[in-house]
Specification:
By secondary structure, the protein is an alpha/beta fold. It has helices at about 5-25, 25-30, 75-80, 120-135, 155-165, 200-210, 225, 250-275, 290-310, and strands spanning about 35, 45, 60-65, 85-90, 95-100, 140-145, 185-190, 215-220, 235, 245-250, 280-285.
Length: about 300
C-alpha cells in the first residue's frame, strides 16, 4: 500500500469512528419523540415498516440486476421478456438501497471562518457516513456513486469503503454522475454546496434527477455564504488554491444584491427538485449535526410511509 493510500485509509477509519458515534447520538432524540430501539439496537418506528412476505407468487418482487448479485439470483424467464437482467426476491428480503455522493471539489474550499470546526468537505463526509450508519440500522443498504462499481451493503466494512471513496483523490466528480450505471429504484443523496449557475448545473444534474424516482439534493454552505456578514474592503477567493481573487471596496454596499442572488439560486434549486420529485435541503457548517441527522432520518422514514400508503 502506498503512503497516500495508507493516509486515506487512516483518515477513513477516523471518519467512520466519529460518524458512528454521531449516528448513535441520534437515538435519545428519537426515543424522546416516542420512538423505541429496534432489534438492531437502534431505530425502529412506525414511520418505516419493513415489507412482509407470504405464500404465493404475488409476494415475489423483481428488480434490475446489480453487480453485487449472483447469477443464481437472475430470473431468466422474466429477463427473456426484456433487454435487462432481472432479479427475483421475496418481499421480506428486500432492503431499500441508498446511493451517496459527496462533492470532491468541496475539499478545495476552506471554511470561511478559521475558527470553524469543520469545512464543507469534512462536514459533508461526516454527515454522509453517519447517515449511512443510520440507514444500516434501519436494515437498508447503501453504496456510493463511483466508477469502480462499488458493492452495496451494511456494517463497518461498508462504512469504511464509503469513507475511503469520499476521501480518495480520485473520487467521482459531479459531471460523471450521470454516466454511472444505477437502478432507478435507488434513492440518491447528493452533498455539495451547489454554487454553480442553475443553467450550467442542469446539464449534469437533470439526467440524474430524471433517472431516479426520487432523491435528495443536500446543499452544505458556510454561514458566511448565506448571511454575508462582511463590512468594508474584503477579498474573496473561490478556493484555497485559486490563483485569483476578487476585491470589494465596500462589502456592505453589495450585501443586498448578493443576498438576493443567493435566495434566487436556492429557490431555483428547490423548484428543480420539486418538479422532479426530489427533496431539496439546505444546511450550513454552523448547524448542529444531530439536528440535521434527525431531519434526514425523519424525511426518509416519512417518505417510505407515504409510498406504502399510496
Amino acid at each position: 500500500m502506498s503512503e497516500a493510500a495508507d493516509t486515506v485509509t487512516s483518515k477513513a477509519a477516523l471518519l467512520v469512528d466519529e460518524a458512528v458515534q454521531l449516528a448513535y447520538r441520534v437515538i435519545p432524540d428519537q426515543t424522546a419523540q416516542g420512538f423505541t430501539p429496534g432489534k438492531t439496537g437502534f431505530l425502529s418506528t412506525g414511520l418505516k415498516e419493513k415489507r412482509r412476505g407470504g405464500l404465493g407468487t404475488q409476494f415475489w418482487q423483481f428488480r434490475d440486476y446489480q453487480s453485487t448479485d449472483t447469477p443464481r439470483a437472475v430470473d431468466w424467464k422474466r429477463t427473456a421478456r426484456g433487454d435487462n437482467l432481472v432479479v427475483k426476491e421475496r418481499e421480506q428480503e428486500q432492503a431499500d438501497l441508498y446511493r451517496l455522493w459527496v462533492d470532491p471539489l468541496l475539499r478545495y474550499k476552506e471554511a470561511a471562518s478559521p475558527h470553524r470546526y469543520k469545512n464543507k468537505y469534512e462536514f459533508s463526509c461526516l454527515l454522509a457516513v453517519a447517515l449511512a450508519q443510520i440507514i444500516h440500522e434501519l436494515e437498508d443498504r447503501t453504496l456510493v456513486f463511483s466508477e469502480n462499481t462499488p458493492r452495496s451493503g451494511r456494517g463497518l466494512r461498508t462504512l469504511e469503503a464509503h469513507a475511503i471513496e469520499f476521501l480518495s483523490p480520485h473520487a467521482t466528480n459531479f459531471i460523471k454522475l450521470k454516466n454511472i450505471k444505477t437502478s432507478s429504484s435507488e434513492t440518491p443523496f447528493l452533498f455539495s454546496d451547489f454554487w454553480v449557475p442553475t443553467e450550467a448545473l442542469k446539464a449534469d444534474l437533470l439526467p440524474v434527477m430524471q433517472h431516479f424516482r426520487t432523491g435528495y439534493l443536500i446543499q452544505i454552505a458556510d454561514p458566511e455564504e448565506i448571511n454575508f456578514p462582511y463590512l468594508g474592503r474584503t477579498q474573496f477567493k473561490p478556493t484555497h488554491n485559486a490563483d485569483w481573487s476578487y476585491k470589494v471596496e465596500d462589502a456592505a454596499a453589495v450585501r443586498e444584491v448578493y443576498l438576493d442572488r443567493i435566495r434566487k439560486h436556492q429557490q431555483e434549486l428547490a423548484s428543480l427538485c420539486r418538479i422532479h420529485g426530489w427533496t431539496y435541503l439546505s444546511y450550513t457548517t454552523g448547524d448542529d449535526l444531530i439536528t440535521i441527522l434527525n431531519a434526514l432520518y425523519r424525511s426518509i422514514a416519512t417518505s417510505h410511509s407515504g409510498d406504502k400508503g399510496s
